[in-house]
Amino acid sequence: MQRSNLILGAIRGYTFDQLSPFIRSLRAAGSTAELCLFHNSIDDASLAKLREHGATLIPFHKFGLKNPFTGHVYTGDGRLRTILNLYPRFIGGMPGLSDEARFAARAKFAKKFFIVHCSRYLMYLEYLLSRSAEEVGNVLIADLRDVFFQRDPFEFDCGDSLCVFNEHRSIRLETDSCNREWVEAPMGREAVDKFRSEPLSCSGVTLGSYPRMVEYLKAMAQLFFTSYLNFAYHPGFDQGAHNVLLWTGDLQKVRRFDNFDSPVLTMGGMKPDEVLLNDERRVINRDGSIVHIVHQHDRHPPVEAALHARLS
């Protein structure tokens, strides 16, 4: 059986125009990879266009309880969270329940109540477990709105490993308030002190073989239902969990890449004069090779304009 490569993403509330650079640049780069998108609150016209570009679309539903008097919509955040968190703890401690049944119950909960930043990992894992290593070769999980492909991402040989991509060197745990909160709130100040000198990886783009990606997603799911349970309702905490896993060494066969020596360039934190472009206005590494994936290109409008112009 010919194995296919697979890209997984989750989208909520976007229009096709916002997603167009991602999917059009992917196909313009010559990639024939499967694209599977989990979606919520996407208009019908945008869904139709995504299908036209070869995306497999899987809907997910989020919990919301609307106050008829104020119009406020209550979700898994706030006062409901303490009650809601009893369920995954109950499932986790229930005797006689198989691992498969336990995961299915937790994943169903996460898809409804966790913020998409976190619930997407459970959706990806559930989907990958419905496939097999005989069907799927390598897997890319990625943000969509701020990702642009200059080359087929699967031209890069990741081998049987999990490839993670570091933030700009200026973004450090001890100085960046957001990343510090995403680690300190769930794990305590001692974790910040212990890992303060470790590099930060961006959770927005991760590439790996099928076995390594399943291992990674299972580890993320475990964190969301333990140390990170109270924080899986808020944006950004998936990055904290992602980095904790990398720092603790619980994952097998991890390869880290720094900007400018990598198939992925993470542009957040970069100064404009640090961006390297060739004569064709393509973003490149120090050795002149064209970067496969440009992430967070919207932080640099001139770069964004140059990339988007290639799709005209």
Report on this model:
There is one protein chain. Helices cover 38% and strands 19% of the residues. It is of the alpha/beta class and 312 residues long. The chain has a 7-stranded mixed β-sheet, sandwiched between helices. It has a 3-stranded mixed β-sheet with strand order 7-12-11. The chain has a two-stranded antiparallel sheet with strand order 4-5. The longest helix has 15 residues. β2, α2 and β3 form a beta-alpha-beta unit.
Features:
312 residues; alpha/beta; 12 strands; globular
Brief account:
The chain has helices spanning 16-28, 44-52, 79-84, 86-93, 99-113, 116-129, 177-187, 189-195, 210-224, 237-248, 301-309; strands at residues 4-12, 34-40, 55-59, 65-66, 73-74, 136-142, 147-149, 162-166, 201-209, 254-257, 264-266, 293-295. The radius of gyration is 20 Å and the shape is globular. It is built from eleven helices and twelve strands.
